[in-house]
Amino acid sequence: MKKIPISETINKIGQEVELFGWVDSKRDHKKIVFLDLRDRTGIVQVVGDEKFKEISTEDVVKIIGVVKERPEKLKNNKILTGGIEIEAREFEILNKTNPLPLPVNTDGYEIDEEVRLKYRYLDLRRPRMYKNLALRSKFIDLIRQYLFKKDFLEIETPILSETTPEGARDFIVPSRLQPGKFYALPQSPQQYKQLLMVGGVEKYFQIARCFRDEDPRADRAYGEFTQLDLEMSFVKREDVMALIESMVIDVYEKLKIPIKQKPFPVFTYQEAIKKFGADRFDLRTPEEKEKNIQAFAWVIDFPFFEKTEDDGWTFTHNPFSSPKPEFMEYLLNKRNIPNILTTQYDLVCNGYEVGGGSIRNHRPEGLKAVFEIMGLSENEIEQKFGHMIEALGYGAPPHGGMAPGLDRMLTCITGEKNLREVIPMPMTSGGRTAIMKAPSQIKEDKLKELGIRLR
Ligand code: ASP
């Protein structure tokens, strides 16, 4: 006899089966005791005798029993296994549980999130959470399949690195070998992926973790999040947009998730502001919202720069972007700065920005001009970005890319309200890790080793 998943019991009527799982619930009818046994594939009713009394909910058990068809009037066609039950012959408690600190057989929305995250390993037992994890895995699988078919390479880039500006604060890691010096965790692989283009890779992607120390916001995950990071050589804006759009359509069709409009409508930034008052907007009707239809749109032609508080300039999206070709002369001569439009394209879905990208400055003088407009001194530019400017000087191909945010797309697909519902082990909104207690204090001798004294 072979162990089978619960979902397969329906094909085994009359046969003896071996099942493993958790006891989802127990109903004690004195001489007969019913259990609902749960594994990741579903739930099935198990009928046992008084010996079952020693079993409690959430114990891990092995059950050997015969699959029986239920009498017609006892069938429950709301669940997959509702037409059958398992008549137990033997059972073994593989691990007796302590009382659980939170219920796991509800959808969980009613429970305080801090508690759910402290006990995330239990919270994940909810079928809803398993479904989200499984969807995430399938989603990434389909993205990979699509991109491999288009000859992309999947390449990892360093995590301990130098700062890459994406408009947030960096997470900093002290160096032991060089006391007083620090690594920064990447806010995105932006610089490395461009350097891969200089390296002749031409088509790169990565399911990349990005780290941004931003003030917690309701619609963001604090600390780290996952992007599909992608870069291509010898492309124009429209080529990257077309690739991403066809990938999204392919993946969503395979997952049977309806998309409102194909090809995706395109709005300029000006049009979007005029029409929706914002550069992220929801194109769905109330009925379409009800049906959880995904409404994608592109936004293009953003201004490159915006004023800072102290009357200088900063980038609106990405300092590594190239302006639209017709504005290159303005950039290089630092003229008409507010009128310069960037090649940036943002993908919007159901009211959220789900990703952005651009064609990059592949010539050193373009990138340098961006930093000069931002008021960086020659010295600062050399210090922070000298390696990029140098690299672009060695025959960098024209290139561009994008980075759709996977957490956000999955939140839209599932119709969940909160990004944390689709992230396996997210931080709390206050920035504490799930389950473990980071950030935490470290011992004095560790600090000493790092040459750090706390104030
Ligand atoms: N690095 C950008 C970001 O993280 C995306 C890109 O331009 O490829 O938003």
Structural account:
By secondary structure, the chain is of the alpha+beta class. It has 2 domains: 6-95, OB fold (Dihydrolipoamide Acetyltransferase, E2P) (Beta Barrel), CATH 2.40.50.140; 117-302 and 344-362 and 397-422, Bira Bifunctional Protein, Domain 2 (BirA Bifunctional Protein, domain 2), CATH 3.30.930. It has helices at 113-118, 120-123, 127-149, 190-198, 237-254, 269-276, 286-290, 328-333, 364-373, 378-392, 406-414, 444-449, and strands at residues 16-29, 32-39, 42-48, 60-69, 84-95, 153-154, 172-174, 182-184, 203-212, 223-233, 266-268, 296-300, 305-307, 313-315, 345-349, 352-359, 399-404. Strand 1 and strand 2 form a beta hairpin. The chain is elongated, with a radius of gyration of 27 Å. The model has no long low-confidence stretch (mean pLDDT 96). The structure holds aspartic acid. Aspartic acid (ASP) is lined by residues 166, 188, 190, 318, 356-358, 401-403.
Strand content: 15-25%
Largest sheet: 8 strands, mixed
Tally the helices.
12
Mean pLDDT: 96
Helical content stands at 25-40%
Distinct ligands: aspartic acid
Termini separation (Å)? Answer: 65 Å
The CATH architecture of the largest domain is 2-Layer Sandwich
Strand element count: 17
Shape: elongated
| Oligomeric state of this protein | single chain
Note the run of SSEs as H and E.
Answer: EEEEEHHHEEEHEEHEHHEEEHEEHHEHH
Give the CATH class of the largest domain.
Alpha Beta
Number of domains: 2
